[in-house]
Amino acid sequence: MSSKKTYEEVAEESTAEEDLVGIAKEVIRRTYGDTAGKLIEYLLENGYIAEEKIVNNVEIRSNEARKILQKLSDEAIVTPDKIREGSEILHVWRLNKPALRTFIMNRLKKTREKLEALLKYEAEGTIYECKTCKRRFLVDEAYANGFQCPYDRDILVEVNNPAASSSINELIKKIDSIILKIERL
Ligand SMILES: [Zn+2]
Known about the structure:
By secondary structure, the protein is α+β, with helices and mostly antiparallel strands. The protein has helices at 2-14, 20-32, 34-46, 54-58, 62-74, 97-124, 139-144, 162-183, and strands at residues 48-50, 78-85, 88-95, 127-130, 136-138, 156-159. It starts with a helix and ends with a helix.
């Protein structure tokens, strides 16, 4: 049961922002950290970032930025390129929006799958509760204890948790609407 909160938190945080730039930033930030969120924000605004100008543009230490760009590059979210600026050749990383979109979609779908699995568990797995100490037990644990609490011998009663299920359903709906929005881009 301890994993339940995590899934809900993940979903809540990944759906906190309604606009797509916000969603992209949030997904990247959650995956690669705050600095990566800052970097992707710049890339979404400007389309590319030059290695030679990272410190000036985003105030991130260039070796830290390079590590993040390498990770984004592994996902094809950025691709290396060169541009000429006056007499200078700049080494740039270009934002690959379709790859970013795919990345976000995959993350959202994974979260959705986890939520679906959780719903199924809630629907199928009957949970027993001790009215005295409020400890919860799965059916096989309850059976093994003769449907008595091993701590205080009170009788274990079946409980279901409709509130939890409906909040999971809400999150799934939210994720679906974001997925739909992204698919229409
Ligand atoms: Zn008890």
